[in-house]
């Protein structure tokens, strides 16, 4: 078992930390607390697949755009309110009970599946592309932003019985044949309709092109055997004409 603080001190001297934009601490068998400091220009941070069972401290990281803290055995409340540039956040397979995202207005990809969330507030951002909050058995409420169109959304294996999207009707999971209130929703039917239309158009064009090729005339070139037979027939006709002429002279 390794200590993350000691690893950072040995491999990342304080004088060099300001130049680092990508820090990968994944799969290091770290245990205990995690305190990351001095990486003021950090944009991407990955400390997944460890066993942190203490406090995780990230200070003054307003430039962070991508965080992967999945599979680290963390729990309790996680606050990302101050990370205004954050676009991608992975928190899957932990024991997180609360998630604060108020200041993360640019967040587009959120993976918080397989945790212990009870309420999920997504009103922080209108830029979501994908949200996965599945396998949170105690999750019973989700707050959506005003704009949530064309978002790939997964909330299977939760306690949700109804999901009301902005500017749309209520989705009642009890009316579906799924068990345990499983929900798997893909929002943005317009994208699917457009895709089907384009596929049909391409298929139609291919069909017309194939029929056009099959309908073109084919030039038949006579074989050498046909030419010989035609020559023999012409010779016989010529002999018959010569015979008639000779009879007339007689």
TrEMBL record:
SUPFAM superfamilies associated with the record? L domain-like
Q: Does the keyword Transmembrane apply?
A: yes
Residue ranges, compositional bias (Polar residues):
218-235
| InterPro entries, alphabetized | LRR_dom_sf, PRK1-6/SRF4-like
Q: Which UniProt keywords apply?
A: Membrane, Transmembrane, Transmembrane helix
- Give start-end positions of Basic and acidic residues composition bias: 236-250
List the transmembrane segments. 187-207
Q: Which residues form the signal peptide?
A: none
Q: Where is this region: Disordered?
A: 218-250
Residues in a coiled coil are: none
The protein depicted here goes by the name 9847_t:CDS:1
Q: What is the lineage of its organism?
A: Eukaryota, Fungi, Fungi incertae sedis, Mucoromycota, Glomeromycotina
């Amino acid at each position: 078992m390794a200590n993350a603080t000691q690893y950072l001190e040995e491999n990342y001297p304080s004088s060099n930390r300001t130049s680092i934009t990508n820090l990968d601490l994944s799969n290091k068998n770290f245990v205990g607390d995690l305190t990351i400091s001095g990486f003021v220009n950090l944009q991407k941070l990955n400390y997944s697949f460890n066993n942190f069972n203490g406090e995780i401290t990230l200070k003054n990281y307003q430039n962070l755009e991508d965080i992967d803290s999945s599979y680290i055995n963390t729990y309790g409340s996680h606050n990302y309110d101050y990370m205004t540039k954050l676009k991608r956040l992975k928190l899957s397979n932990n024991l997180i009970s609360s998630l604060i995202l108020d200041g993360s207005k640019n967040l587009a990809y959120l993976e918080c599946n397989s945790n212990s969330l009870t309420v999920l507030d997504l009103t922080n951002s209108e830029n979501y592309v994908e949200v996965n909050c599945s396998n949170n058995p105690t999750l019973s409420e989700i707050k959506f932003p005003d704009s949530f169109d064309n978002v790939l959304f997964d909330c299977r294996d939760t306690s949700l019985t109804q999901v009301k999207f902005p500017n749309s009707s209520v989705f009642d999971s009890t009316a579906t044949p799924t068990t345990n209130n499983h929900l798997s929703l893909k929002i943005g039917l317009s994208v699917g309709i457009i895709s089907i239309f384009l596929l049909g158009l391409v298929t139609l064009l291919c069909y017309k092109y194939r029929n056009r090729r099959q309908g073109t005339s084919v030039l038949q070139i006579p074989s050498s055997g046909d030419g010989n037979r035609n020559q023999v027939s012409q010779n016989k006709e010529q002999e018959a004409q010569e015979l008639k002429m000779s009879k007339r002279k007689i």
